[in-house]
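Thread title: Can someone regenerate the structure for this chain?

I was given the following input by a collaborator and told the matching C-alpha cells would be attached. They weren't. Posting the sequence so someone can regenerate them.
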Amino acid sequence: MSQNKMPAAGPLKADPVLEVRGLSVTFTRSGKEFRAVDNVFFSVEAGETLGLVGESGSGKTTIGRALLRLLTSAGTSIDGQVLYRGRDLSALSRAEMRKLRGRLQMIFQDPVSSFNPRRKVEDIVAEGLDIQGFPKAERAERIEAALAAVGFNRALVAGRRPHQFSGGQCQRIAIARALAVEPDLIVCDEPVASLDVSVQAHIINLLQDIRADRKLGLIFISHDLAVVKNVSDKVAVLYMGKIVEVGTGAQIYDRPAHPYTRTLLEAVPVVDASRKLVPERERSLKPSRMRPPSGCAFRTRCPRASDKCAEREPLLSPAPGGQLVACHHPHDEPAPGLKAAAA
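Best answer:
Regenerated them for you:
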C-alpha cells in the first residue's frame, strides 16, 4: 500500500515556496527496478527550514536532486509533482527550467568537487549569474554582496583558487555562489558532514542567519538528527524512501514516536548517560531495497513489530505527541532495553 497524502501538522499556510506531492523516484539498472523514493509529500514556506534526516540509502539526496530536476540519467523515472510557487516543474521545458534555476539552488556536501579548480573564486561565485545573463555591472555588485554575506572581503579572495582555502571556507564560497542569484529556496545536501564540529557550527549559524535575513526556504539534508534538530523548523524522518515521522525538532528529539527515529537517536553522541537509548535486542541488517519486506519496511529491525506490521503498511497519521507518524504502535513502550538507561 502506498503512503497517502501527508496530513496537515498545525495550521495550514498559504502559498508555500515549494510543495511536493507524491514524489516517487525509480531507478532501473540491469533490468531491475529500485524504488529510491516512495510517494513523499511535504512543503516549505518562505523563511522556513525543513530537515530531511535518515541513514545512508534512505533517499535524502535523491529527493534533493529530484526537486531541482538534476536526475536525468537513463533508467530514471520520476512521478508526482514538485510545485514552485504553484508551478509544476515537471511540466516546464528545459528553457523554462533554466530560467527558474536562479530561484532554486543547491549546496553540495563536497563543495570542492563542484568547483572548477582552475577558476578563481570570483568566477565560481558568478557561475549562476553568467548562466542567467546578468549584466556586468550588476554581476560585480552581486559577487561582492554574496561574498560579504558569508564573511569574505571580495578584494582578498576573488582572485584566489579553491585549493587555497580550507574545507569550511570552500563551503562558504559554495553558499555565496548559491546566494548570488538571490534564490527563494536552497537545498543543502549534507553541507556540514565533512567538516570539523567547530566549523559545522559556524556554517549552520551562517545558514540560519542568511535564512532569517533573506526569508529563504531551506531544505537541510543530513544523517545526523542532532544537527537537523538545531537547524530545522520541522523535521521529516526518512526510512527506505518513505517518510515515517514528521514534527518539530523538539517533538521528534524529546519524544520520538517511530522506533526508527529512536534508532537514529541512539547514534547521537551524548554526554549525559541517562539520555542514551540502548537497543532492546540485536537488530537485524537493513532489508534489501530490491526486495523490501511486506507491510512496514522497518518491521525486520523493530522491537515493537507485530503480525499487523507484516500485513499492512502504516500510513502517516497524527500521534499523541503532536507529530505525524507511520507506525501501527506509536509511542508504545518496548521492552525495558529501549528505555532510557540509568546513569
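DSSP finds twelve helices and twelve strands in the chain.
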